[in-house]
Amino acid sequence: MHLSNGFITARAHTNIALIKYWGKKNDDLIIPNNNSLSLTLDEFYTDTSVKFSNELSKDSIFLDDVDISNSTKIVNFLDIIREKASISEYAYVKSYNNVPTSAGLASSASGFAALAAAASKAAGLQLTSKELSKLARRGSGSATRSIFGGFAEWIKGNTDNDSYGVEIENPVTMDINMIAVVLNDQPKKISSRVGMKRSVETSPYYNAWVKQCEVDLIKAKTAIKENDFNTLGKISESNAMRMHALTMSAEPAFMYFNNDSIQVINSVKTLRENGVECYFTMDAGPNVKIICKSKDIKKIKAALTKTFNDEQIVVSKPGCGVQFIN
Ligand code: DP6
């Protein structure tokens, strides 16, 4: 598809949660059970161009040049925007991911954040960041935070109107990097949507998770304020493991780790025993993300390349919030 005039293009970066969102109290509106906190990354992003046109008889949606016009998730999301803008035209959507899609590298976060920005503007709406964040949330929960750069928090709220993201610190003053170890770029078997629902409904530990997240969140925010890298790293690592404990305690149980994930986790622990300050986190896929300081990137990469290829290791700095690029 050639991009002619009239397209609005937005770029949004992925974010990785340090305090995870795992479970909704309202599935339709995507209202979470707990606040979450993330770091937006500069290396992974989605560029999305949108144009509404009365020449179309249905939405025409392409992701990385593949026709995905049948995606009900995206069509429903465009319906929300049409309703808000009181328009009825269908949209051309052309999106490019600089992220391995559905591999646990949060492509839905950058995807829906970029789509919310581009499509709302193309529909004639002028939304504030807070409004964009609420809109992005309707596509995918984690997208709520990708409207913002640096450290962002998703305030859980109770309704469509009070569940949105806020910037905690941007630009980030802490020396923090995230090394993504890409272990599998195949789409995951159990999506986060399905996985978190099963955890909410069947894990006997679910209520304890929600309670613990409140404690973890306060500690993480204090660590950010005090520029305390190690406390933030520790709390992020335990919060991730607590989330994965919910998948393993669900019925039927499932897990996102594979053998390589365990190997990376063990390398992080060995590095730490040898004085390298680094911590891991994992989402709904086998990839492991390592939080570290700039001075240790080389050492960590050297340890990982004993087992993994260079291309599997991507180093990110904190990234910026959503922006229009035309
Ligand atoms: C593990 O945002 O993908 O990455 O709201 O159902 O679209 P839906 O889920 P999604 O879940 C992300 C889960 C997570 C943790 C996080 O990003 O907070």
UniProtKB/TrEMBL annotation:
A GO CC term assigned to this protein in UniProt: cytosol
EC number annotated for this UniProt entry: 4.1.1.33
Ranges where the Diphosphomevalonate decarboxylase-like N-terminal domain occurs: 12-164
Domain (Mvd1 C-terminal) ranges: 179-312
Enzyme class: lyase
Keywords in alphabetical order: ATP-binding, Lipid biosynthesis, Lipid metabolism, Lyase, Nucleotide-binding
Top-level taxon of the source organism: Bacteria
SUPFAM superfamilies, sorted: GHMP Kinase, C-terminal domain, Ribosomal protein S5 domain 2-like
Single Gene Ontology BP annotation: isopentenyl diphosphate biosynthetic process, mevalonate pathway
GO terms for MF: ATP binding; diphosphomevalonate decarboxylase activity
Similarity comment: Belongs to the diphosphomevalonate decarboxylase family.
NCBIfam families per record: mevDPdecarb
Name the record gives this protein: diphosphomevalonate decarboxylase
